Amino acid sequence: MINRILIRIKVVQMMYSYLLTQEEKSFADAKKELKKSLEMAYRLYNYIFVLMVELTDMQDRRLDAAKNKYLPSEEDLHPNMKFVNNEFIKRLRSSNEYAEYQKENKLTWHDDDIFLKLLLDKILKSETYTDYMSKPGNDFAADCELWRDLLKKVVFIDDDFIDQLESKSVYWNDDLETIGTFVLKTIKRFETGNGKAFMPMYKDEEDSLFGEQLFTKAVLGRDRCDNLINRFIVTENWDADRVAFMDRVVMDVAITEVLNYPAIPTRVTLNEYIEIAKYYSTPRSGQFVNGILNSIINYLKDERIIVKE
């Protein structure tokens, strides 16, 4: 579930933080924090599924309470239970992977009752919900589609939801876009029934080791990477003193990957770190990082220091 795109982002972030705080943060502490950051990304993935279940439960309680009003209406006594009986939510509850993670971690939004009520109100007022409830019958594909649409059109863009995540963990400030994509893919996997729907934290052991290894190699090999960067900053007529610190960090990690991972094509590495630079640094960083890394990669190939596409 935690793919190499997210791992690269986390390594760049940790490298940046570590280099700025070396007097306060040891190398060992930085590695622990990187590991924690990746674990928290997977925790967010599971938290979003718990949110869907608890929103459903809250609506079930509301409908049940309405039946016991002093003067219940006909709608109160015979509510439309389609949302509460959503088949995707039922299968989610019965998923072994969901149950096992919950047993070990006991995730809940119960302490955020006011937030849950407000978010549920927004869902019930949404066009997505209204359209779904107006269609007769039950269809598993439609039940899955409902939650994909609610997440995309209501939950993930809700400012209160984003604020809630930020209050729960400092690690989640930049994770929602990536983790949200994995949640949507997982719902699709439930729908198609292709094997286990829930994604494991890592695809394999190689991916589980990638982050710590890349970070370690980037720290230990930083002088070599900086020498290459400085050489080609001069060659390309850039002002070394005006290079953003984040751009240097991005290039340090990118060069480390190019040098140490022969199975990863240079184009993949280049594209990934250009995008990271665009997002986390300055408006001109993408162009700058692209130019310098291209020059360095061509040099490394010409000198036969790396032999890969």
Task: Please explain how this structure is put together.
- This protein folds into two domains: 4-192, no CATH class; 221-302, NusB-like (N-utilizing Substance Protein B Homolog, Chain A, Orthogonal Bundle).
- The chain has helices at residues 4-20, 27-67, 74-77, 87-94, 96-105, 113-125, 127-134, 140-155, 159-168, 176-192, 205-220, 222-235, 245-260, 266-280, 285-302.
- The longest helix is centred in the first third of the chain and has 41 residues, at 27-67.
- The model has no long low-confidence stretch (mean pLDDT 92).
- With 309 residues, it is mostly helical.
- It starts with a helix and ends in a 7-residue tail after the last helix.
- Helix 1 crosses helix 13 (245-260).
- It has 15 helices and no strands.
| Number of domain modules | 2
Separate helix tally: 15
Q: Choose one word for the global shape.
A: elongated
Taken as a percent bin, the fraction of beta residues is: under 5%
State the end-to-end CA separation: 27 Å
Q: From N to C, what is the helix and strand string? A: HHHHHHHHHHHHHHH
What structural class results from the helix and strand content? mainly alpha
Low-confidence regions: none
Radius of gyration computed on alpha carbons: 24 Å
Question: What profile does the largest beta sheet have?
Answer: none
